Amino acid sequence: MNAVDLLRSPNTVLANAVDDALDVLRPRLLETGAERIEFTVGTQLNGRPHIGTHLVQSLSFLVAERARDEFGIETVVDFVALDNAPAETITRDGRKYQLSYHHQRGAHGIRALVAEHYSPLLKAMTRRTGVEFRVGTYTGQQAGPEFRAEFLRTLEHLDEIRFWLAPARGIAHIRLPCPVCGWAEKHADHTRLLELDGSGALFEARCHAHGRYETDVTPLGGGYLDLATLCRNVVKERSCRPEDSTLHVMVKGGDWAFGCQLVDGAHAAIGTSAAPVPLRIFTPQILGSDGGKLSKSLLNATADAGDPSRGSTAEWLLNPAVWPGTQADYVEALTGVGELMLSDPRHFYRSYTTTALETLMTSRRPARNQPQAHGRPRSIQIYKQYFDLIADGSKTVEVRVAYDSMKRVKAGDLLNFTCRGEECLTRVKRIGRYRTFKEMFGTEDVKAVNPNATAAEQLRAVQAIFPPHKEALGVLTFEIERVDADE
Ligand SMILES: [Zn+2]
Q: Where are the beta strands (DSSP E) in 219-365?
């Protein structure tokens, strides 16, 4: 028995309602007919990331990979560095002021931070899953006309939403940094909305060094707009536009499940937005020994207080740079745990202590060498014209790009092709591996791939779907035979 075999996860409300963790995406996919999913993962800049941050980021790629393979549509990861996080704070006359990472480091400094602390894992996950990613910043987001226009719309409803955004005092923390030095009032104590009309908003605020100042916000310009977490999420979620039939999904740490009630309250108070607000996927929370969320500041505080539980947390959980192995091993272990979590909704919609995570990550046998979860057939969504050909037995060879998830398919595995509620269960008889589509069509029986098109027509069609950098991953063919569902 190893740790992976010993993992037991009780049922929960959400896990009980689904077969797969990603089934939560299906209602919206059916409703919108989206052709692409963008998974957004935001990370608060705060020095070196710990295991909790790395887990959310790697899970974003694994979720995107699984969604691509399950639903048969393009998926991408959108990584947002939240560079409005406070880098420094000071107190003057009883008021707190803060300087964001953006204002402290500048755009060049933020790029350097991302390159040092985040890019290596993101690139490794792309190599692993074939899912591409894009890097953005909060600073870029707040400068966008859609974000700013949506913010101005929320101001029109400030009275209705202010207690949703700040249930205790009703003062939403909208920070407009000083145009001279970039410092802003942390709690917006002296920040006032002076004017609001069709063209924009005018605020007054106070700087600890430069006194009172005014700053405006318009859709196309004006001052830097630093919104506190809840307000930022309300504006960001509402400013996702449904253009190019993309479904937006926010990937968030599990502690957000408690906070989203307030975001939803604000959405409801503002009223219907231009598009349905994005879906959210909450990833497992990583908890310290007493059940509190893993955080550096908490652990440092307990260490200072001489708390003995500090000693039980492996140093690499807080600082992955001291992981006892190569960087490649670390990514392998992280991926193995992520895939284990995704293999059963009960393993996904739950939390893990640092002790459990340490055991899973250092156990000998990673999840990817495990047999298929539950011995269940793998679902593959496919276009109607190909589905019909498989169902009537005339298409017996299916072609796929060699993503890692597809490379795990073995002869004898069951593949369940699905299309608009119809299913066709097949068994893999043989697997072909090729460097290019051209090589594949030179070897496979073209009529078994598609009896209705020539090799040249099929090559053009498949190359139109998969650009050269995807083809470069390699090409797989599955020779399949139909299986009666009751077999
Ligand atoms: Zn100033």
A: 221-222, 226-227, 246-253, 279-283, 286-287, 352-353
